[in-house]
Input
Amino acid sequence: MRYELKVAAVLMAHSVTWPLALPAVFAYRSFGSERFFDFSAKLLSLLPGRIGQLVRASFYMQTLNDCHYDIAVGFGSFFSHPSAEVGRCVGIGSFSIIGTAKLGDDVMVASRVSVLSGKYHHGGGRRGRRIRSNVLELQTVHIGDGSWLGEGCLVMADVGRHCIVSAGSVVTKAVPDEATAIGNPARSLRYADKPEAAAM
Output
């Protein structure tokens, strides 16, 4: 779909999504409650096809800290916190969950990817302590411009620009620019470009 047509379609979708977006924004900004946002994001994640993508783009434009028209969020995928930020031309596959992340321009996210809100959601705490009693601690995970998060990976630390996170990898430490993260826990590798073959 051409960009101009998508902008018009997303704006038209505002007429459908505003009854969900308005109370979600009001509850979050006035009382710090994310419950209505969470309910609406999960509900809209179940709309299939192109219509579902347009409706989700409309909802997130109105509710996230920053989001552009050209976001594409697949079936069953959703943002779990309205504090997330999304750059231009971001694509997210099916059944992915994005936490308090900041996605740069041209980021591609495969299916079944989880971008957590840092590594210490429940504050750690000493052994034997009840997890529910720990203070919730959310951190912003940055995914740099042009990076690709492969199928089923788990990301809980920053990923640099133009990186690849291999399928099934678990990122627990920051990945530098132009690196490939592989394994569990992921290690960062750099591959030098192969020289072009000499002309015959």
